[in-house]
Structures are given as structure tokens and as C-alpha cells.
Amino acid sequence: MERPGSMIKKGIGRQIVMHYFIVIFLALMLVEVVFLFAIRTYYYDTINNMISSHIDATVRSVLVSTNINDQSEMEYLNQVLGLLKLPEAELQILDGKGTVLISSSGFEADKPVQTSDIPQALASGGTAKWIGRQATTGEPVMAVTTTLQQNGGQVYLARFVTSIEKVNQRLTEITLVSMAVIAIVLFIVLIVSIGLANSIVRPINNIIAVSAQMAKGRFDVRVEGDYRYELGEMGSTLNYMAEEIVRSNQIKDDFISSISHELRTPLTSIKGWSETLDSGGYDPDETRIGMGIIAKETDRLIGLVEELLDFSKLQQNEMKLTMARVDLRELLKEIVLNVWAKAELKKVQLRLDADGDAYWVYGDANRLKQIFLNIVDNAIKFSHESSVIVLHLVREDGWVRTSVQDNGIGIDEENLKRVKDRFFQVNTQGGGTGLGLAITQQLVELHEGKLDMSSELGVGTTVSVMLPLLEEGPAAKELDTDTAGIEEV
Questions:
Q1: How far apart are CA 40 and CA 46, in angstroms?
Q2: Is residue 220 a part of any domain in this protein?
Q3: Which parts pass through the membrane (predicted)?
């Protein structure tokens, strides 16, 4: 079980908890302020309305039933005081200057009342309210003042003063209760947010721990757990990455083993025949055979090294292409002538299926020849004896499609998905580096083309290369005659 301190330790978990907590806290504080303001307004308005209702109900009868001309001022004021007084409130009768002439409490004020309700009532001729503290006692009070005007023009003010201390106490109790409710809600929010943060952080920590082990070279570990949404995708991606690294490492190991064998075989032949020839005593025919083997194995070594160099250049984006107009039909004719001897050894027939028109593309002639030589060479290597390989050349909506179709051993669906991967070989006993199709793929892409493969085990394979068609016209002809048409990529 985690310690409380570790539940919100520094990190993304704490950030989640803090942000979630702060948002809820601010929302609750806003609700609290609005609630307390509404409650305070309700209580104060209730008192004010009660006094105002009393004033509305009694002032008219006071003005009708009393007349200052028939009696002395003090008698008139005592009569008004008796008619207007209200339980639980002190009634003061004031003159227009705020001097207290008479009060229901019997206390005499030593100075005029100067609160804001006096001038407001005089100015409006109606009722005004003031909330504050009594000057003598410091007690919180509410004062409601209204004007009393007789026919003679004499203006008096009736001022009702009531204590709101109990109301304020009630408001304080409501405030404390609401704050306690907020504290409980915030505690629940804290617990929930910690749980929410842990539900996010725990998988992240698990993924971090697994990725740390992978960084140390342990690619057998996997992210365990059925995580949802982005975390699930992250875990699946990390597991997929580990699987790809394991597969790449296996391919790399196979490549190293294969290339070591490929290099050792010609070197052994070269070394053996060199020592044999160096010892002397052989007739010219044997010497010629030995020199031929040395030359053949040397060419084979050069091909392997060049393939590795090409792959290295492509990986580092250092491959330079000399671009110009190229007729694919003529290029394929040259390729057929180049591999004719190899095809004859397996009694494989090569056939070019194209009309008599030129198929112009914009590319590097040598690299394009490398692309199609590799494809045709593979077709011959994996074809049966006395079979036919057809090279189709067609135009398709601004593209030139070159398809090399054989009736060889074919490739199963699983290996077809990986056959263009670097270092991968369907038949490890067939020799080579496993880089041929990977290099071909990248060269095609450098020519802004596409390479597709379809195959069925035991039926044959078709490799298609799509290249942008260079339409005939003035611009196309300039590429053939103007040196500005040559560029390096």
C-alpha cells in the first residue's frame, strides 16, 4: 500500500491533483460567495420589507388622524409615536436636520443623526434604508426612514431602528455550515483526484519502467495491463517497437552471418587459387581457369561492397542522381541483353511486351538500370527451368508501369510483407545481403515512383514499378538537348 506522501509526490500526478483541486475550489468559492450574498440579501430585505409594509399601512392613517395645528408639537409627536411604533424596533421622530425629537426608547440623542438614510429620504420624499453600527453601542442595526409632511409644510422623519445582530449570527452560522460542507466536498474531491491521478500515473510509471529496461537492451519485457485510450495506444506502440527491434536485431544478426559467409566464400576461392598459382608448375589451361575464378570472385566481392555502399548512401541521403530523359523501352532491351547469358543457363526465356513507341521518363539511367537489373535478376534466380519471364511496359494515366512477371516459386503472404525490408531474405541459402529490394525500393522513391509486389506461393511473382511519364513536347525535348536539364539529387 502506498504511503499518503507518495500518493501525490512531485510529478504529473501532483499536477493533476492540484489543477483539479484548484478548479473545484475556485468553483465552490464562487458558489459560496453568491450563496452567502443571496442569503444576506434575503434576510435584510425581509426586515426592510416588513418595516416598509408597516410604514405603508400606518403613515396614511397618521396623516389623516393627526393635525399639528390642533395641538402642541410634543403632543403631536407623542401621538405619531404611538400610532407608528413597531415591536422589536426603536422608533425615532426627527426633524429635517436629523435631530431626534422623540424616541420610543426614551433615550435622548446628544447630536443629530447623520446616516445616509436621512438625506436620501428627504431627497426622495419616500423611504430610505441604512445598515451599519449604532454610534453609541456599536451594535449592528438597520434603519428605515420615511418622511412625514403635514399640510403646513412642516417635515418630520420617522426612523425605525432594529437590531440585526441575531440575523448576523444566523448568517455566521450558515456561513460556517456552508464552509464545513465545502471542506467535506474538497476532501472528497482530493480523494477522487488522487485516485484519478494514480489511475493515470500508475500506467505511465509502468510504461516508463518498461521503456527504461528496453533502453538497457532488455527487449523481452512488455507493457502489461489493459490500458484504455491514449495510454493503451502508448503501451501498444512501445510493445510493437520492442517487437520490431527484436525482429530488426534478428535480421541484422542473420545479415551479419550471411554477409560473412558471402565474403568468406569468394575470399577463400581467391586465396586458394592465388596460393596454388603462386606455387607454379601448372599448364596454361589450369592457370587460365584459376585466373578466371579469381576474376569472377573479385567481381562478386565488388558487387557486394557496392551494394553495401549504395545502401549506406541511401540511408544517409547522400545518393546523387544524374537526371535526364530516359527511354524505358530501350533501357529494358539493354537489360534483357545483359542477363541473357544467365537466363540461358536455366533455359529461361525473356520476353519484352511493349509497343514500338518510346516510353520517356525523367531519371538517372544508371540507377534505373540498377533497379530493373535487380528485379529481373531475382526473377531469373527464383524461376523454374524452361519457364518464361515477361516484361510488360504500359502507360497508365500519366505513369509508366513496368511489370516483371515470372512463374517461379513465389512468396508466401507472411514473407511478402517483409520482403522489401532491409537485410531480409526469403531464402537465406540463396546468398546475397538481403539489401537488393530495399535499395530498389528507395531508388524508385527517389525517382518519385512506386514499387508494388504481388505473389502466390508456387505460382509466381509480379513486381511492378510505376514512374511518372514524361510527355513528348518542346519542354521534354529541351531536356534531351539542353545541359540545364541535367541535375544532381
A1: 10
A2: no
A3: 20-43, 174-197
Q: State residue 181's pLDDT score.
A: 93
CB contact at 8 A, 417 and 345? no
Flag whether 19 is in a domain: yes
Residues 163, 131: Cα–Cα separation, whole Å = 10
| Residue 318, helix vs strand vs coil | coil
Cell numbers found for residue 321: 542522381
Strand order of the sheet with strand 450-456?
A: 349-353, 388-396, 399-405, 460-468, 450-456
pLDDT digits (tens, 9 = 90+) for 456-478: 888 888 999 999 988 754 444 44
Continuous H helices in 66-109:
73-84
Domain identity same for 267 and 282: yes
- Burial tier of 465 (Cβ tally within 10 Å: 0-12, 13-18, 19+): buried
Q: pLDDT-based confidence at 172, cuts 50/70/90?
A: very high
Residue type, 32: E
- Evaluate if residue 231 carries a pLDDT over 50: yes
Q: What is the DSSP string of 388-448?
A: EEEEEEEEETTEEEEEEE--SS---HHHHTTTTSTT--S-GGG-S-S-HHHHHHHHHHHTT
Query: Would the pTM of this model clear 0.70, i.e. be above it?
Result: no
Tally of residues, the chain? 489
- The total of structural domains in the chain comes to 3
What's the whole-number mean pLDDT along residues 195-215?
84
Contact 104/160 with Cβ under 8 angstroms?
no
Give yes or no for a contact between 382 and 409, defined as CB atoms under 8 angstroms apart.
Answer: yes
Indicate whether 416 and 437 sit together in one domain.
yes
Q: Are residues 430 and 385 in the same domain?
A: yes
- C-alpha cell, 261: 559467409
| Rounded (10°) CA dihedral 34, 37, 40, 43 | -60
Residue in 122, 135, 54 with CA at minimum distance from that of residue 91: 54
Burial of 254 (0-12, 13-18, 19+ CB in 10 A): middle
Query: Measured between alpha carbons, how far is 323 from 328 in angstroms, rounded to an integer?
Result: 14
What domain range includes position 310?
253-315
How confident is the prediction for the chain on average, in pLDDT?
80
CATH classification at residue 335: 3.30.565.10
